[in-house]
Amino acid sequence: MLISARKLYNQLQDQLSDTLKKHYSTREIDTVLRWLLEHTLSLTQTDILVDKETALLDVQQKQLHHYVERLNQEEPIQYVLGECEFYGRTFAVNPQVLIPRPETEELVQLIVQQHSKAENLKILDIGTGSGCIAITLDKELPQSTVWALDNSPDALAITRQNAHRLQSSVEFVEMDILANTPNIEQLEMIVSNPPYVLQSERMNMRQNVLKYEPQTALFVEDTNPLLFYRRISELCTQQLTRVKWVYLEIHEKFAPEIKALLTQGGFVAVRTVKDMQGKDRFIVASR
Fold it and tell me: At what angle do helices 58-71 and 5-23 cross, to 10 degrees?
């Protein structure tokens, strides 16, 4: 049947309004609905604005109904569609990996800006998840070699899928970094967005995050909030002594403690970088 893009948009909005308002702002709801229509019917934002008439096939109508049901169960739109945009590329995602965040794009941008002319740089991404950091660095810094490390075989399966679809030559390491040391000769850079949300902060988080995203990739115990940062500092001090640069996404509350760890680990230039929201979100260290 034929239907106008605006009418279809409004129908979806009515079907999802109660659920989406619990978790999204008006602007975010608009984005969710546009993603649905673009993914299902290839309708762009312009098509909606000009109220383009489009053919809605039975199979597409059923698919939209299925997506609406999942969204009404508070499942994030990225998992519903099975993909997420990151740094201008489309990455496959599922509940085995975190949904890439805009702040992490900022971390990647920092690295790309500072190392765009580097050659033969060896980079390790610890806790790679979907591979968004590792694969993006591999594509943006083509003269570098990048390793993607995770302790979850399910997460690495998604990383491999993304590397294949994006034609990335990133290399894979399945390892528990807390118990083992990666064997990468002359490694020069470590980048990581490790678990850093405190268990006590659960009550302040959206339910759709708590219900669907992998908890082990999000949370650390309140009694040991620097677990992964301490381990990275230890590795740089004891085994991976050739590492010259460390780039970390952090909990703003612990910026001073993380800076102190890296300073004790031999990094002479350690600084905090704020994200677009003005929060202390990244640590950049060099030696």
Answer: 20
State pLDDT tens for residues 74-117: 899 999 999 999 999 999 999 999 999 999 999 999 999 999 98
Q: Is residue 138 assigned to a domain?
A: yes
198 and 159 inside one domain = yes
Domain count, the chain: 2
β-sheet bridge partners, residue 190 = 124, 246
Read off the pTM.
0.94
- Per-residue pLDDT tens for 226-267? 999 999 999 999 999 999 999 999 999 999 999 999 999 899
Q: Which of 18, 40, 73 is the last residue of a domain?
A: 73
pLDDT reported for residue 23: 76
User: 167 lies in which domain range?
Assistant: 94-286
149 in Cβ contact with 124 (< 8 Å)? yes
Please answer whether residues 91 and 40 qualify as being in contact, where contact means their C-beta atoms are separated by less than 8 angstroms.
Answer: no
**How far apart are alpha carbons 257 and 265 in whole angstroms?**
12
